[in-house]
Design brief:
heterodimer; A: about 700 residues; alpha/beta; Rossmann fold; 7-stranded mixed β-sheet; B: Rossmann fold; 6-stranded parallel β-sheet
Chain lengths: ~700, ~750
C-alpha cells in the first residue's frame, strides 16, 4: 500500500478506505502518497478530486503536486465542497432555477459572498430594528444580519426549510425564559423570509441557496449520473471538519468511484460554527471497505505526552491518569501584571530561542484566543527590533484600514462629486501624500489646506491659482505632479457612467503607478488596488448585474460600505506568506486548522475567557441548528458547559499534539482591556501546577 | 500559622463558618484587614477540602483600588502565611466587574453577542445629551409649567433660560429615570405600557420614560451596553437560567461584601440570589454611607440586613485609628443627630447608633495619645471664603516645619473648593498633592498622547509643534527637565518653534534650507543635536499617522511611556480608540484627540484602569488636598475640614439652601426627586398618590443626612489633630451669606464643655 503502517481492518484490497488517527501520525502524507500511487498507476489527473474543508488545508496537496512532474497544478482538482457546489449550480443552473423559485430562471445566477449577502440583507434588518422588532436583544444591525445569514446556511445544511428556524430556536430557548426572545426569533424569521424573496427575485445565490440548489441537483438522476461519473478517484481530507450534508454526499458517491480515501482526524472537528460533524465523519468508516488506524506520532516528546496526560486528567477524560509525580512536563508558565509585559516576555523568549538556541523562526508559533490588531502590531514591532521575521494570519482586515485603499477611495470620491461625499481634509492630505511621490506629510497637509474646497464648484484648486509664496513652500515639482493628478480626476469626473472597478484600474494604470507618483514600483500597493478592483467588480456584478441602477450610484453604495468597514480585503496570497521562515502569530483556532506542527508554541492570554467559546448567540446556535439536536429540546446550562469543555479539551490537546518540543504559557493578570483574567484554561493549568509544582516566572510558587 | 494578632471582635469575625453575617465596622476598625484575613481562612478551608479546582471565595467591593488592595492582602496571606498559590481560590471584584464576569460567561442568554461592547460614559452621555437637546426643541415648553415666573420679566426671558439651562436639567432627569429603571429591572417598554394605562398625568415621568426608551435603543443599535446594564444583564442571566445560577452558586460558596453600606437594591438582590441566601458576609459602616445622592445606593439595605432574624451580628466597634478626642467628637456627632430636637424626625435617623470604642490595653494597634482639636467657629466672627483659605494656609505654614514626619490633609466638600486651595498652596510654595480629578497617571498619559495627536492633526501649526516639544518631547529627552539650564534652553526652543510659520522648514527642510541652520552659528551644538533628535521623532510619528489609530497609539506610546502601568494604559487607550474609530467611521485625528482630552479631563471612566492601580498613600510632610468623598478609606495625622457651612452641610433648617433646587424652578421643587417619585409611584400602581413637592422636601432631609455622614467621614480621617473651619460662601457680598453648619456649632459648644469639664 505505502510506507505507513498501522492497524488495518477490512477487505484485502479495499476500493474505498478510511484512514484515521490523531494529528501527527502521517494521515495527510498517507493520502498524498496514495494520490501519487494513483497517478503513477495511470489514473488521469483530471479524474481525481481532492476535497478539503477549507483552502488552507489544500496547501500540502498543492505543494506536493507542484513539486512533482504531473502536469500543470490544476490537473488534479483540490477543492472545497462549497466551491464544487457553486460550480455545479453555475453549470447546471437551468436544471434547478425554475424549480427553486427564482424569477426569470432563463437568466443567469449571481453568487453572493458573505459580505455582499449581509449587504443585501441590511435594509430588511434596518427596517425591523427601527420598528423595535429586535428590542429584546442588544446586537448591532450588522451582527443581526450576520446571524440570520448564518441561520439560512445552517438550515440548508440541516436540509430543513429555513422558515422552521424560529421554531428550532424557540424550542431550545424553552418555555420558562423571557418570551421577548421568541419575538426576536420570529422577527429574524420574517427578515430571513423577506431577504430570501429578494434573492429569488434577483437570482442572488448566497451560501444557503447554493447549497439548496446543489442538493436539488443531487436529487436529479441525470445530474447524479453526470456528477458521480465525472471523477473516478476521490480523496477527502479532514472529513471530521465537514458537515452532515457533505457526509451524505460522500456516502452516496462512494459506490460510484473506482477508489476513494477518506481521512479522519481523531479529536478534530474544530469548525463547529461552520457545521463540523466529527461523529458523522467517523461513521463513514462503515461505508468503506477498509479502515486503517495510524497511531505512532511523529512529533510529540515525552514531556508533551506527559502534559497531554495531565490535560486529559484535568478534563476528566475516560481512562485518563495524571502524569507520574516528578514528570518533566514540557511547559513553562510566566505570570505578568500587565499585558505589555507579557508581550515583552514573548519577544525576549523568542529572541533567546532564535539567536541563542538556533531554533528556526518558522518553528515558533505565537497563539492567543483572539489576536487583536494591537497585539499583532506590538509584538510584530518588538520582533522587528530583534531582527526576527514574523508573519501573522489576517483573516479579515477591513479594506478601509489599508492606506493604499484609502488613498484610492478618497481620490475616487473627489472624482465623483455626484456621490455627495466630501472626504475630510485629513483624508485628502493623506491621499495626496501617498499618491504624489516626494510629497512629505507636512506639505501634504499644507497642500490639502490650500487646494481642497469641499463645498466649492471646483473641489480641487489648480496649483497656479494659489499664492506664489504657498507654491514655493509646497515646491514646484510637487505642484506639477499635483496638477497632473487634478487634471486626470477632473477629466474622469466628466466621463460619467464608468463602473467604479474600471475607474480604479484606470487610475492605477494611467496615473498613480506612473513615475512621479506614489504607487510606482510598489507591488504591495498594486496588490491592494487589485483587490479593491476585484471587490468592487464582485459587488457590482453580484448585486447589480441587471444594469437597472446607474454605475455612479453603485459606486456610491460601494464607497459607503467600504467606509463603514463592512468589506474585508481578501488576502489571496496570505497562505503563502504563512509558510515563510518566520514566527507565525495566529488565533489558536486558525493554527489548529493550519494542520502543521512546530517546535515551540507560545500561548498568550492563558487567563482569557476567549479560550472558552460561548456557543449560545442571541439569534443563532451551532448545536441547536444542527442535524443532531432533537427539535424541542431545551439548551441548558449544562449543555453549554459540557460542550465548552469538550471544545476546550479539543483545542488544548490539538495544540499540544501540534508541538514537538515545548510550550510557553503567558498570563497577564490584567488583560488587554485591563480586566483580571480568570478563564477556564488558567484553572486547568492551576490544577496541573498544584499536582506538579514548578517555578512560575513572576510568582514564587511553593508546594502546598 | 500566622503571627498576626487580632482583636477579640476581629477573632469573632474570622471564626465565621457559614450562614449570613453582618459586620458593622466603625472607621479605623481594621475592616479590610479582617475581611482579607477571613477570605484567606476560607481559601485555606477550600484547599484543605480539595475544592480549589472548582470553587472560589468571592469578594465584592466598591472601587478598583479597593479591589487591588484586597487582592494583594489576600495574596500575601495565602502565599506567605499559608503556602498556597496566589490568586487561586478567590476572586475580588467590584460589582460591575462581577457583573461583567457573569455576562461574559453567557452573553447569549441576555441577548448580547459574544463581542458586545461596554460603552464608556462619554459615549453614553453624548447619547443622552443629544436626546435632551432634541426634547427641549420639540417638547421643551412642558418644562415652563415648572418655572418660577416671579423671577422672569416676561415669557421670552423664561424661554431663554429654558433654552440655556433646560438641556442640563432634562439630562439630569433622564439620568435619574434611567438609573431608577435599571436598578429596578424595569424595561422602558414595560414602563411605557404602565404609563399609558394610568389615568393620572405624570409629565416628568412621561418625559423620563421616553428618554430612557430612546437611550436603550441607541445602545442596542451599537450592540453595546452601559455600566449599569452590566449589572442588570447579570441579574437577568441569573434569573433566566436556574442551572446557570446553580453553577455559580457552586463556584462561589462564600460571598464577602465590603462597603455594604453603599449597596444598591440591585446589588443587594444580586448577591442575595448568588449566595442563595446562604453564606453571605456583609461588612460596612452605615455611618459612612455617602453615595446615596445621584446614585442608587441605599444605606437602609445594610441596616435592614443587620436586623434580619437569621443574620449573625459581629460588629467591629473598636478603632485604633484616632486619638480619643477625635473619637469623642465623632461619637458626639452621632449622638447629637439622634437626639437633637432641632432636627426633623427623619433626619435624626441619619446615623446608625454605633459608637466608636477606643482600644483596650495591649491592643495590637492602640489609639494615638497626643491630639489637638480646633473648631474655628465664633458667633461674633464672619469668615469669607478667602480668609478661610488664608487662615488654614497660615496654620499650615506655622505647623509644617515642626511636623515633617506627619501626614496632613485639607479636605473640602467639593472639587471646586479644592482647586482654589491647591492654587493657594502653590502660590505659597507649600508642597501638596491633590486627589481632585482622575488619577494623575491616567490623566498624564492621555494628555501626552493628546498633544501628539493634536500635532499630527495639523503639523503645519507652529504652536502645536512648540507644545509637542515643550510638553512631551522635552520631558522625555532631557534627563532633568526641571533644571534651570534645561528650562532656559527648553523655553528658548519652544518660543522659536511656537513662532515658526513654516513648520516644513524644520520638519522636512526643502531646497530653501534647514530652519535649524537659520538659528545662527552660535547655536549650541547640544541644542542642535536635540533639535535634530526631536525632528527625527516628529517625522517618525508623522509617517506613522496613516496607520489605523490603535497602531498609531501603540507606536506613539512606545516612545512616551516607560513605566509598566503607563505602558499598559497606553495599550488600553489604543484598544479603546480603535473601537471608537470603528464605531465612528467619520472620526479622524482631531476627533480622536478630543477623545483623549476627555480622558485626560476625567470625563470618561475606564473599566479596568479607572483608578490608581494601588490605593493612595499619603506622603509625610506633603499636604494632601482632597474632597471628603475621596478621603474615605484614608487617614492622616492632621486633618483640616473646610467649608463646613450650612450650604455644604445643611440640616433641614429654614435658612439652608440646596444644590439640587434650581433658582428658576418654582416652589423649591427638586425635579430630580419629583421625577423619581412619579416613576416609583407609577410602577407601584400608586400614581394617584403623587403629591407635588413632597419628594422635594424628603430629598432635602435625605441630602442633609448624607452630608452629616460625610462630616463624620471627614472627622474620622484624623488620627491625631483635627481642625474644622467654615466660610460664608461665594455670595456673601450679594447678601446671600451662609452660616456655619448646625453640626459645627453644636460640636464647638460640646467641645468647649468637654474642655471645661
Amino acid at each position: 500500500m505505502n510506507s505507513h503502517t498501522g492497524e488495518y481492518s477490512g477487505e484485502a484490497d479495499p476500493r474505498t478506505m478510511l484512514v484515521e488517527g490523531p494529528f501527527g501520525v502521517g494521515k495527510t502524507s498517507f493520502a498524498i502518497e496514495t494520490l501519487f500511487t494513483w497517478l503513477s498507476d495511470g489514473v488521469p489527473p483530471e479524474n481525481i478530486l481532492v476535497m478539503v474543508p477549507q483552502r488552507t488545508l489544500a496547501y500540502p496537496y498543492w505543494e506536493a503536486l507542484r513539486g512533482a512532474d504531473y502536469g500543470p497544478l490544476g490537473s488534479v482538482d483540490v477543492r472545497t465542497v462549497n466551491g464544487l457546489a457553486k460550480d455545479m449550480v453555475n453549470i447546471y443552473w437551468p436544471l434547478v432555477a425554475g424549480e427553486a423559485g427564482f424569477a426569470e430562471p432563463e437568466r443567469g445566477p449571481h453568487f453572493l459572498t458573505l459580505e455582499t449577502a449581509q449587504y443585501a440583507m441590511a435594509d430588511f434588518v434596518d427596517r425591523a430594528v427601527e420598528n423595535g422588532e429586535f428590542d429584546a436583544i442588544n446586537v448591532s444591525p450588522q451582527q443581526i444580519a450576520r446571524q440570520i445569514v448564518d441561520n439560512l446556511g445552517k438550515a440548508a445544511l440541516m436540509g430543513i426549510d429555513y422558515r422552521q428556524i424560529p421554531d428550532f430556536l424557540t424550542g431550545a430557548w424553552g418555555p420558562d425564559r423571557p418570551r421577548k426572545r421568541v419575538l426576536a426569533y420570529q422577527a429574524a424569521g420574517r427578515v430571513a423570509d423577506a431577504y430570501r424573496q429578494y434573492c429569488l427575485k434577483y437570482r442572488l445565490l448566497d451560501y444557503s441557496l447554493q447549497i439548496e440548489c446543489f442538493t436539488r441537483l443531487l436529487r436529479l438522476p441525470d445530474f447524479r449520473e453526470a456528477f458521480f461519473g465525472a471523477r473516478t478517484h476521490l480523496i477527502v481530507d479532514h472529513v471530521e471538519e465537514e458537515d452532515a450534508l457533505t457526509h451524505t454526499l460522500i456516502r452516496d458517491w462512494l459506490p460510484h468511484l473506482d477508489a476513494a480515501l477518506l481521512v479522519y482526524e481523531q479529536d478534530g472537528g474544530y469548525r463547529v460554527f461552520l457545521g463540523a460533524n466529527p461523529e458523522g465523519g467517523q461513521a463513514l468508516a462503515r461505508d468503506c471497505e477498509g479502515v486503517l488506524t495510524l497511531s505512532e506520532s511523529y512529533f510529540t516528546s515525552p514531556g508533551l505526552e506527559a502534559l497531554l496526560d495531565e490535560v486529559a486528567y484535568s478534563f476528566n477524560q475516560p481512562g485518563s491518569d495524571p502524569a507520574p509525580e516528578g514528570s518533566d512536563l514540557a511547559f513553562d508558565f510566566a505570570f505578568h501584571s500587565y499585558y505589555p509585559q507579557m508581550i515583552d516576555w514573548v519577544a525576549d523568549r523568542i529572541d533567546h530561542l532564535v539567536h541563542d538556541q538556533g531554533i528556526a523562526p518558522k518553528e515558533i508559533s505565537v497563539l492567543a484566543p483572539f489576536l487583536s490588531d494591537a497585539l499583532r502590531f506590538s509584538l510584530g514591532q518588538k520582533l522587528d527590533q530583534r531582527g526576527i521575521p514574523h508573519v501573522s494570519h489576517r483573516p479579515s482586515r477591513a479594506l478601509r484600514d489599508e492606506p493604499a485603499a484609502r488613498c484610492v477611495l478618497t481620490l475616487a470620491a473627489l472624482a465623483h462629486p455626484e456621490w455627495g461625499e466630501r472626504p475630510p481634509q485629513a483624508d485628502v492630505a493623506q491621499a495626496l501624500q501617498l499618491a504624489i511621490a516626494g510629497l512629505d506629510p507636512v506639505r501634504a497637509a499644507l497642500l490639502a489646506k490650500v487646494v481642497y474646497r469641499p463645498g466649492g464648484d471646483e473641489v480641487l484648486t489648480a496649483f497656479d491659482r494659489i499664492t506664489p509664496q504657498m507654491q514655493a513652500r509646497i515646491t514646484y515639482v510637487v505642484g506639477q505632479r499635483y496638477d497632473h493628478l487634478r487634471d486626470w480626476l477632473v477629466t474622469a469626473a466628466a466621463e460619467r457612467a464608468t463602473a467604479l472597478d474600471h475607474f480604479f484600474s484606470r487610475m492605477f494604470g494611467e496615473l498613480i503607478s506612473q513615475s512621479g507618483y506614489g504607487f510606482h514600483d510598489d507591488p504591495e500597493a498594486g496588490r491592494v488596488v487589485a483587490e479593491l478592483v476585484e471587490s468592487a467588480r464582485k459587488f457590482r456584478q453580484s448585486l447589480y448585474s441587471d444594469q437597472s441602477i446607474d454605475p455612479i450610484e453603485i459606486g456610491r453604495r460601494y464607497f459607503t460600505i467600504v467606509r463603514q468597514g463592512l468589506l474585508a480585503a481578501l488576502y489571496v496570497a496570505s497562505w503563502r506568506d504563512e509558510h515563510a521562515d518566520a514566527v507565525f502569530m495566529a488565533p489558536a483556532y486558525t493554527f489548529l486548522l493550519r494542520n502543521r506542527a512546530v517546535d515551540v508554541q507560545f500561548w498568550l492570554d492563558v487567563g482569557s475567557v476567549g479560550w472558552w467559546e460561548r456557543l449560545d448567540q442571541p439569534l443563532t446556535h451551532p448545536y441547536v441548528l444542527s442535524p443532531n439536536w432533537p427539535a424541542g429540546r431545551i439548551w441548558t446550562d449544562s449543555d453549554e458547559v459540557v460542550r465548552q469543555e469538550e471544545m476546550l479539551y479539543k483545542i488544548v490537546s490539538g495544540l499540544i499534539r501540534r508541538c514537538r518540543s515545548h510550550i510557553y504559557l503567558g498570563l497577564s493578570d490584567l488583560g488587554e482591556q485591563g480586566y483580571e483574567q480568570r478563564g477556564p484554561l488558567l484553572r486547568v493549568f492551576q490544577q496541573i501546577l498544584r499536582r506538579h509544582p514548578q517555578p512560575v516566572e513572576g510568582l514564587e510558587v511553593s508546594r502546598e | 500559622m500566622s503571627d498576626l494578632k487580632l482583636r477579640p471582635s476581629q477573632e469573632e469575625v474570622v471564626s465565621y463558618t457559614g450562614g449570613k453575617m453582618a459586620v458593622a465596622a466603625v472607621p479605623g476598625s481594621g475592616k479590610t484587614f479582617t475581611l482579607s484575613y477571613l477570605a484567606a481562612e476560607l481559601v485555606t478551608r477550600l484547599s484543605a477540602e480539595n475544592r480549589l479546582d472548582e470553587q472560589e471565595v468571592l469578594i465584592v467591593t466598591f472601587t478598583n483600588p479597593a479591589v487591588n488592595s484586597f487582592r494583594h492582602r489576600i495574596s500575601n496571606l495565602v502565599q506567605q502565611e499559608r503556602g498556597l498559590l496566589p490568586y487561586v481560590g478567590y476572586r475580588v471584584r467590584t460589582l460591575h466587574g462581577l457583573a461583567h464576569d457573569i455576562v461574559r460567561m453567557r452573553p447569549g442568554l441576555v441577548g448580547l453577542s459574544e463581542s458586545f461592547e461596554i460603552l464608556d460614559e462619554r459615549v453614553t452621555s453624548t447619547i443622552i445629551r443629544d436626546m435632551a437637546e432634541r426634547w427641549i426643541r420639540t417638547d421643551g415648553d412642558m418644562l415652563l409649567d415648572y418655572f418660577d415666573f416671579t423671577r422672569f420679566e416676561d415669557i421670552e426671558s423664561a424661554s431663554r433660560t429654558l433654552r440655556r439651562k433646560g438641556v442640563d436639567l432634562v439630562e439630569s432627569l433622564a439620568y435619574e429615570v434611567i438609573r431608577l429603571g435599571k436598578d429596578n429591572l424595569w424595561e422602558p417598554d414595560e414602563m411605557a405600557e404602565v404609563l399609558n394605562r394610568t389615568d393620572f398625568d405624570l409629565p416628568l415621568a412621561r418625559m423620563g420614560i421616553d428618554l430612557y426608551a430612546g437611550y436603550q435603543r441607541g445602545l442596542g443599535y451599537r450592540g453595546a451596553v452601559d455600566f449599569d446594564d452590566l449589572v442588570r444583564y447579570a441579574m437577568a442571566a441569573l434569573e433566566s437560567d436556574p442551572e446557570f445560577l446553580a453553577r455559580l452558586r457552586v463556584r462561589w460558596p462564600y460571598i464577602l461584601e465590603d462597603e455594604a453600606q453603599d449597596s444598591s437594591k440591585l446589588q443587594n438582590d444580586m448577591l442575595r440570589l448568588l449566595s442563595g441566601d446562604g453564606n453571605w458576609v456583609r461588612v460596612g459602616d452605615p455611618n459612612q454611607s455617602i453615595y446615596t445622592t445621584f446614585t442608587t445606593a441605599d444605606s437602609n439595605l445594610l441596616r435592614r440586613f443587620i436586623d434580619e432574624d437569621d443574620v449573625a451580628n459581629h460588629p467591629l466597634p473598636v478603632s485604633g485609628r484616632s486619638a480619643p478626642p477625635v473619637i469623642t467628637l465623632a461619637n458626639h456627632l452621632v449622638e447629637w443627630t439622634g437626639e437633637s430636637s432641632l432636627l426633623p424626625d427623619r433626619l435624626r435617623r441619619a446615623f446608625y447608633a454605633q459608637k466608636i470604642e477606643p482600644t483596650a490595653p495591649g491592643d495590637p494597634q492602640p489609639n494615638p495619645v497626643e491630639s489637638f482639636i480646633y473648631l474655628d467657629w465664633d458667633p461674633e466672627k464672619n469668615v469669607t471664603p478667602e480668609s478661610e483659605i488664608d487662615r488654614v494656609l497660615r496654620s499650615l505654614e506655622r505647623w509644617l516645619p515642626d511636623h515633617k514626619d506627619w501626614t496632613v490633609a485639607v479636605l473640602v466638600p467639593e472639587n471646586s473648593r479644592g482647586f482654589k486651595i491647591a492654587e493657594a498652596l502653590k502660590e505659597r510654595d507649600i508642597e501638596y498633592e491633590e486627589l481632585l480629578r482622575s488619577t494623575s497617571s491616567t490623566r498624564d498619559a492621555a494628555s501626552r498622547l493628546q498633544v501628539v495627536f493634536d500635532f499630527l492633526a495639523d503639523p503645519t501649526d507652529g504652536r502645536r509643534l512648540g507644545t509637542l516639544f515643550r510638553d512631551v518631547w522635552w520631558m522625555l529627552a532631557v534627563p532633568d527637565p526641571e533644571h534651570d539650564d534645561a528650562i532656559r534652553v527648553g523655553d528658548q526652543v519652544y518660543r522659536a518653534l511656537n513662532k515658526l510659520r513654516t513648520t516644513e522648514d524644520f520638519l522636512w527642510p526643502g531646497p530653501e534650507g534647514d530652519w535649524i541652520d537659520s538659528l545662527g552659528d552660535d547655536l549650541d551644538e547640544s541644542v542642535r543635536a536635540l533639535l535634530e533628535q526631536f525632528r527625527a521623532q516628529a517625522q517618525f510619528w508623522l509617517n506613522a499617522s496613516s496607520l489605523p489609530v490603535d497602531q498609531l497609539t501603540l507606536t506613539i506610546s512606545q516612545a512616551l511611556f516607560t513605566g509598566q502601568a503607563d505602558i499598559a494604559l497606553g495599550h488600553k487607550i489604543a484598544v479603546v480608540l480603535g473601537s471608537i474609530a470603528v464605531n465612528n467611521p467619520e472620526y479622524r485625528l482631531p476627533h480622536l484627540a478630543q477623545e483623549l482630552r476627555s480622558i485626560s479631563q476625567n470625563e470618561r471612566r475606564f473599566l479596568g484602569f479607572d483608578d490608581a492601580a494601588e490605593g493612595y498613600e499619603p506622603k509625610k510632610g506633603v499636604v494632601t488636598v482632597a474632597t471628603m468623598h475621596a478621603a474615605k478609606g484614608l487617614e492622616w495625622d492632621r486633618v483640616y475640614l473646610m467649608a463646613v457651612n450650612n450650604y455644604s452641610f445643611p440640616a433641614a433648617q429654614p435658612a439652608d439652601s440646596y444644590i439640587a433646587e434650581k433658582w428658576f424652578i418654582r416652589d423649591d421643587l427638586n425635579l430630580q426627586a419629583e421625577v423619581h417619585e412619579q416613576v416609583e409611584l407609577l410602577m407601584a400602581g400608586k400614581a394617584g398618590e403623587y403629591v407635588e413637592g413632597r419628594a422635594s422636601r424628603e430629598a432635602r432631609i435625605d441630602y442633609a443626612a448624607e452630608r452629616l455622614r460625610l462630616l463624620y467621614v471627614g472627622i474620622t480621617r484624623a488620627k491625631r489633630d483635627l481642625v474644622i473651619t467654615w466660610n460664608m460662601g461665594r455670595f456673601w457680598e450679594q447678601g446671600r451669606e451662609n452660616s456655619a453648619a448646625a453640626a459645627l456649632i453644636e460640636l464647638t459648644g460640646f467641645w468647649e464643655r468637654e474642655l471645661k469639664s
